[in-house]
Automatic annotation (TrEMBL):
Residue ranges of coiled coil: none
Binding, ATP: G28, P29, A30, A31, S32, G33, K34, G35, T36
Protein name: Cytidylate kinase
One BP annotation, GO: pyrimidine nucleotide metabolic process
EC number: 2.7.4.25
An example molecular function term from Gene Ontology annotations: ATP binding
Alphabetized SUPFAM superfamilies for the sequence: P-loop containing nucleoside triphosphate hydrolases
Amino acid sequence: MPSAASSPVKGPATVAVHTRPLVIAIDGPAASGKGTLAKRVAAAYGFAHLDTGSLYRAVGVAVLRAGGDPADPAAAGRAARDLHPEDGILADPDLRTDEAAQAASKVAAVPEVRAALLEFQRRFAEQPPGGAPGAVLDGRDIGTVVCPGADAKLFVTASVEVRADRRLKELQGRGIPAIPSDVLEDMKARDARDSQRAVAPLRPAADAFVLDTSALDADQAYAAAIAHIGSKTGLGPKA
Ligand SMILES: Nc1ncnc2c1ncn2[C@@H]1O[C@H](COP(=O)(O)OP(=O)(O)O)[C@@H](O)[C@H]1O
Ligand SMILES: Nc1ccn([C@@H]2O[C@H](COP(=O)(O)OP(=O)(O)O)[C@@H](O)[C@H]2O)c(=O)n1
């Protein structure tokens, strides 16, 4: 009998662990900083990044462009089934408007829409594009529904006032005029729709690390995230 140290069984088992892509789930409400964090984490580890909110935005914009109502399940379901994310639609600047965000949170409450977008998201996590060794997905239900087995889960949050202020500054920075009270009200309306919907509501997974960034700048949030990911995966950032 070979000793445990020289057993051929050990090698393949170790290889299997390292060949499965690592998955990091980052969820949270609007303007909590999850997108900023997800991009930075993905770059640091050499992982692929998917902003899943852009999928819902693309569906919402498609319904609006067709003259439909984003809250109409038939129109929203059709648009989701017809979506081809690989075609470059996710980079369309029209997706970044507040109108698109509101439409996104309406189509996102339609179960057929969520079902139609699930396979693309799971495939991204299981087979990250470009052969990347891992994937970072950010959204609302990554840790709870899309990738419940993710290697590390973060739930990034901040008070609604702080988040509205961040979004206001972001809009102003892009030269888009915005009224502070409207931005705050829109954010509250979206929070309510996202948290209260029947299917895949916004909530932290039971095993998520909750990161409140109300009093943290982006560098501090990143440092806390990296420390958590390191504790769950044993990996440190490459950069
Ligand atoms: N920790 C932070 N502190 C202050 N501003 C932040 C922080 N994280 C992100 N931001 C800024 O807040 C805005 C919203 O961040 P973003 O990452 O787009 O949020 P989300 O993806 O959750 O909607 C952006 O302008 C971003 O630069
Ligand atoms: N995984 C996801 C991602 C987004 N969404 C929906 O899509 C909307 C837009 O998401 P987003 O992440 O682009 O929004 P921001 O956080 O950038 O403002 C959200 O308000 C949710 O209703 C979702 O339901 N599930």
